[in-house]
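Exercise 7. Predict the joint structure of the components listed below.
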Amino acid sequence: MPDSAEVMRLYGVPFSQPVRAVMWLLLFKRQPFELILTNPGSKGDNGSRHPDFLKKNPAGTIPCIEEADGFTLAEGHAILCYLCNRHGWTDVYPDAPRERARVDWYLHYHHRNLRDASIGLVAPSIRKDLDIPELIRNNARATLGSALRTLDEGWLKDSRFLAGDAVTIADMAAYVEIGQLKPGFTNVWDFSDTPNVQRWLEDMTTVDSHDDVHVVLSALGDISQEAPAMDAIRDANKQALSVLKSRLAAF
Ligand SMILES: N[C@@H](CCC(=O)N[C@@H](CS)C(=O)NCC(=O)O)C(=O)O
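Solution:
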């Protein structure tokens, strides 16, 4: 493990979907990093709306990375692409223009489509402070349903992964949103009418570091009947951090 002053910092928490995508890529590539716990939406110390954090990311959102020379970058998908460019990880972000474009295509599509999984189904239980109105939740669920059908009948109909037959950062970005809903995790969505998505969800569990990145969800478990208590959320976070710590210590 390199000197901690040299190691890239990742600001966030394991409950955040785009933070999990960045953590997944870093663990998959055995790239050391330090997770700096940053509470989304909080103005307090270690909060994403604290003035010190806003200097790193004026939008006040996690994930955000900071390198040893002070370079900072936010937006999960921008971070995924940057890390692949910086380290030459062309296995998960191919450099052939059309292959790369297919990955980018999904990464752009994701926002306002699959990302609505969190707003419609997970954030209302985990981020009760957001008090998301029922109308917005319903709209988000409708958008998600239609986006899942699009994946099922399009992207995943003839290929194993979203951008072809090999896993890419598009799959990691998608799975952290879609996978969180399935049985074994929060269990808040019925995937039975999207068989290609179901098959892809299963395939994604075999991708290196899947289990370690998703400890926070397996520890939290099913929230379909009752919103989890604060203690359960805290406990799931603790378990996730402990697994992450031992993974990073082994690098
Ligand atoms: N488009 C951003 C969205 C990030 C985002 O929504 N992060 C949430 C946590 S999952 C957050 O930081 N929310 C705090 C806030 O909006 O105040 C990305 O993909 O990185």
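Discussion. Residues 134-155 form the longest helix (22 residues).
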